[in-house]
Amino acid sequence: MSAITNQFLQIGAFLGTWVQDIVNAPLFRLGTETITLNWIIRVLVLLAIVSLVAKASKQFLKNFLLLKLGVSEGNREVIGTLTSLSVATLGFIVVLKTMGFDLASFAVIIGGLGIGIGFGLQEITKNLVSGLTILGESKLKVGDLIEFNDNIGHIKEISIRSTVIRTLKGSDLVVPNTELTSNAIINWNYDGCNGRVEIPVGVDYASDPVIVTEVLLESAAMEASVVKDPTPKVIFHSFGDSALKFELWVWVERVDLRPYIVSRLNFIIQYNLRQRGISIPFPQQDLWLRNPETLGPNPPEVPVQPIIPVDAPPTLKSLLKQFPCFATLNDLELRGIIEMGDRHYLKSGEILVKQGDYYGYFCVVLTGEIHAIYELKTITNRLFSFAQGDFFGERPLMLELPYPTTMVAAQETTLFLISKHCFHLLLQSHPHLADEVAQELAKRQDMLQSYQQKLKEMGLLPAMELNSPVEWIKKRVHQIFGMG
After folding, report:
1. What proportions of the chain, in percent to the nearest 5, are helix, strand and coil?
2. Rounded to whole angstroms, how far apart are CA atoms 299 and 54?
3. What's the predicted TM-score (pTM) here?
4. Rounded to an integer, what distance in angstroms lies between the CA atom of residue 373 and that of residue 382?
């Protein structure tokens, strides 16, 4: 056994000496340093350690220290990247100096190589600087929805050389950073992801533009993703070859969902236009005959009238015309008012606003009836009702007071709601309406006096005499809305 053991020990010693001779055998000389396999292995291990330390320093700064200090994400990325590069560069120099490599003797060679590498890698250098610029300015951030070169998508990753964009189609678009810094970029997330969606609509020349405006605004109100501020707008775009061309402008909170929102709005618009008997024409061409008498007598032309369904709901235009304040307005003025407001439907028994709550709308009753109910712990009393053609909400709106009563629908009711801002614009553009509103209020003087008394009892209105409601309302309108 001892002989066999001795043989293994001799073989092991021989192999160890052989491996040692191989790794320590001179390969070539680099300056004053003799390069061996052992030297290369030690340098690679040390450089790997330096790389790990540089990467760890970046993660520590970016995800811990700078995050605790409240530094923005873009600046954290820039500081972390520059620190990592500095640590790596310094570590590489220290490793080479420690291993006996004399960098000074190769300064000229390194300089020459640097010039060549600079020319060869100038695009990478540009992208590096552009990447640091993007991260530092924070104008583009991960998650932003951007539009670039007819591509739209979310930024998935921003690296030193390139940026990855996940398009709405699901593909990843890798863009060099210089392309992003040298071209115009639409960032939908710069102040939020809300934006405008435009829906082109063409209707027959026989259509009433006011009714078309009403239908388009009603369609916008039926889409849940459309926000109310800014309010939807209808643009009369042009007179087309075979159609009147309109555009519906709506604002949405998620503009990245534009294709789905456009699709839903198109369905709603097509349905509502059909309900109103408004046709969407197709391109037509006139055919002229040189000798029409040879074809025999022509039948008399019968004008084509749009077919309006029997069960079509009344138009907002016709309903507003029944309201005394709007009866004298022309179609263009009515169109502007239709744009200011919104039709609101209530089921029988549905509460519009509860007693003590604020509701910032001027309300016109188009159809149905609204009851104003005064509620106490021990008693519930209906003070008055508002039927078709009546309005309410002007006093809480102007005085910024909560409602002294609960407003509830006595039956299925349709209201036309105008916000405070639009009510302000309405009175500015039609000053005579203030007087007409005052006259309508004067017709209900007894109701106003009862209303005032209830407000006094609840402490919502200071004691005042309402001997002349017309003059008081005129004065309040002019004071609050700056009309003279």
Report:
1. 45, 20, 30
2. 91
3. 0.56
4. 4
Question: Residue 68 to residues 81, 82, 214: CA-CA distances in angstroms?
Answer: 18, 19, 54
- Output phi, psi for 259, to 5 deg: -60, -40
Query: For residues 46 and 100, what is the distance between their CA atoms, to the nearest angstrom?
Result: 14
Cα dihedral: 465, 469, 472, 477 (round 10): 140
Q: Hey, which bits of 100-232 come out as E strands?
A: 145-148, 151-158, 162-167, 172-176, 186-187, 195-203
Cβ atoms of residues 217 and 232 within 8 Å: yes
Among candidates 91, 100, 14, 6, which has minimal Cα distance to 56?
91
Residue 286 DSSP SS3: coil
- The H or E element that residue 61 is part of is none
Can you name the residues that pair with 369 across neighbouring β-strands? 387
Show pLDDT as tens, one digit a residue, over the chain (484 residues): 566 666 666 666 656 666 666 666 666 666 566 677 777 777 788 888 888 888 888 888 877 887 777 776 666 777 777 788 788 888 877 777 776 666 665 555 556 555 655 555 666 777 777 777 777 677 777 778 888 887 888 888 777 778 888 887 778 888 888 888 787 887 776 566 677 889 999 999 889 999 999 999 989 988 888 988 888 999 998 898 888 999 999 998 887 788 888 998 999 998 889 888 898 887 766 666 666 666 555 555 555 555 555 566 788 888 888 877 777 788 778 888 888 888 889 999 999 999 888 888 989 899 999 998 878 766 777 877 899 888 888 777 777 778 878 999 999 999 999 988 888 888 777 777 777 766 666 665 566 566 556 656 655 445 444 444 445 555 555 555 555 5
In sequence order, what are the beta bridge partners of 7? none
Buried b (16+ CB within 10 A) or exposed e, 271-284: ebbeebebbebeee
Angle at 481 between CA 466 and CA 469, to 5 degrees: 15
Q: Is 170 helix (H, G, I), strand (E, B) or coil?
A: coil
Amino acid at 8: F
Supply angle C-alpha 306, 309, 315, rounded to 5: 85
CA–CA dist 413, 415 (Å, integer): 7
Check the CA dihedral 139-142-145-146 and report its sign: positive
Tokens at residue 397, please? Answer: 């709106």
The SS3 assignment for 85 reads helix
What torsion do the CA atoms of 22, 28, 32, 33 make, to the nearest 10 degrees?
-30
CA distance 200 to 146: 24
Q: How far apart are CA 75 and CA 61, in angstroms?
A: 11
